[in-house]
Amino acid sequence: MNLLVTGAAGAIGSHYVRTLLASDLPAPRLPARARAAHGARLIHVSTGSVFTPCPKDHPTAPRTACGRSELAGEQAVREEWPGAGAIVRTAWLHGVHGANFVRTMIGLEARLPTVDVVDDQRGQPTWSADVAERAADLGSRLGDGTHGVFHATDSGEATWYDLAREVFRRAGADPDRVRPTTTAAFPRPAPRPAHSAPAHARRQEIGLPAPRDWRAALHEALPGIRKESPLRETP
């Protein structure tokens, strides 16, 4: 089986995202068009930014430029590959590689006496390894009538403040060094949605295992993240 995986760029500058939208050729169209020649199955990784908290079949309602770009990618996959392939939505990713919130908190804990963290955005912190495992499970089922939209986040909900406190606590630091603040204190060119918590019913309907709690995933992920995140490289 040839499994082709494409993905959204994530939260990047809104000016750049508007340029992509204006191009009228979302990147997922290109690999989708290649499927006939190579017989590949397609998984497109998107994010919860395309909708407000709801089941997978709820109408999308992106509130940000990034969300609109990611929704355009999803629509491209549907148009080029109707009735086949899968869209996997995830959010609040952390892992060993690349800039992410958990790596940032590890670095700030070592450098600063206190850290102000947003407490009015809610989501589902998710280990990238869990997303990869779920995508692989889903990929093995494509072609057997399985297609459409699936959510791949760890379970439970937290604010960024909650997540930061958990990182500090598991690092042996005082979680009270993390202080709550608001989104308005950290303006961004691509604003984050206030609530990004996808439902998971669809994946269980086709026999995929239920997602584990985000705290359990963070506990397993942290040793590797800390090992590969020396302070001089922490974002």
UniProtKB/TrEMBL annotation:
Pathway: Carbohydrate biosynthesis; dTDP-L-rhamnose biosynthesis
Compositional bias segments (type: Low complexity): 180-199
GO (cellular component) term, any one: cytosol
Single annotated GO MF: dTDP-4-dehydrorhamnose reductase activity
Signal sequence residues: none
SUPFAM superfamilies to which the protein is assigned, alphabetical: NAD(P)-binding Rossmann-fold domains
Keywords on record: NADP, Oxidoreductase
EC top class named in words: oxidoreductase
One Pfam assignment: RmlD_sub_bind
GO BP, sorted A to Z: dTDP-rhamnose biosynthetic process
InterPro entries to which the protein is assigned, alphabetical: dTDP_dehydrorham_reduct, NAD(P)-bd_dom_sf, RmlD-like-bd
Record's function text: Catalyzes the reduction of dTDP-6-deoxy-L-lyxo-4-hexulose to yield dTDP-L-rhamnose.
Family: Belongs to the dTDP-4-dehydrorhamnose reductase family.
Name recorded for this polypeptide: dTDP-4-dehydrorhamnose reductase
Organism of origin: Streptomyces griseoloalbus
Source species taxonomy: Bacteria, Bacillati, Actinomycetota, Actinomycetes, Kitasatosporales
